[in-house]
Design a protein that fits this description.
With 97 residues, the chain is mainly alpha-helical. The protein has helices spanning 10-21, 28-57, 59-71, 79-96.
Length: 97
Amino acid sequence: MKTLQVELSDEMAREVENAVEAGSFANATEVVRVSLREFISRRRFELRQQQLQDVETDTPELEAELLKVADATSISWHPEQFREIADRALQAYRAIK
């Protein structure tokens, strides 16, 4: 485990002390750890949401292509075309996972 030293404003230090004195946390270290854990979790969620929005921005183009395919009576797929579509879908899936 790595030790970091953090400087806090007087106001933030008072908030940490108040949380410990109120019994919400055992000590200042716990306050910081919980706060960082929540920050990291929230940041990861925001990044995932952004990735989903980025994928959704491409959706109209993809939807148009899919509609063309669905409306076609018969389609001859070249294996390379199918592979390219599959690769793009897999890449988009991995980006949001």
